[in-house]
Amino acid sequence: MPRSELSIMFCYVYVLSSNYSKKLYVGFTTDLRKRVAEHNKGLNFSTKAYAPWKLLYYEAHRSEADARRREKYLKTTPGNKTLKKMLREEFSQMKNLNNGKSTTGYA
């Protein structure tokens, strides 16, 4: 069966914020809802200790190679700085909700 335009599979790069600590996590998946649920259920070793997680940001890519390249970039120092600039408003709102105390360490 030929693949139609409506059945395009997207690959996602996502950013999670820990509700428990000041940690951010950047990841890649083809099923965003399932992956965030896995993080919150403690099924990922590297994020288990910092659950629960909140989805802060995601990007959808049609190419797995592009998504993996973007994930790798966001995990670098320049990528992390870019991410902080992109999410500046989100960090500011989180800080305001916590009575001026930054929960991310970035605002």
How would you sum up this structure, described in words?
This protein has a domain at about 5-75. Helix content is about 35%, strand content about 20%. The chain has a 3-stranded antiparallel β-sheet with strand order 2-1-3. By secondary structure, it is α+β, with helices and mostly antiparallel strands.
Layout of strands and helices, then pairs:
Layout: E1 11-18, E2 24-29, H1 32-40, E3 53-61, H2 64-74, H3 77-86, H4 88-97
Antiparallel strand pairs: 1-2, 1-3
What oligomeric assembly is this protein in? Answer: single chain
Mean pLDDT: 87
Order of strands in the sheet with most strands: 2-1-3
Number of helices: 4
Helix/strand/pairing category? alpha+beta
**Low-confidence segments, ≥5 residues, pLDDT <50?**
none
Distance between the ends = 50 Å
What percentage of the residues does DSSP assign to strands (E)?
A: 15-25%
Major sheet description: 3 strands, antiparallel
Shape: globular
Tag the structure with descriptive keywords.
about 110 residues, about 35% helix, alpha+beta, 4 helices
Outline of this structure?
With 107 residues, this protein is an alpha+beta fold. The protein has helices at 32-40, 64-74, 77-86, 88-97; strands at 11-18, 24-29, 53-61. Strand 1 and strand 2 (24-29) form a beta hairpin.
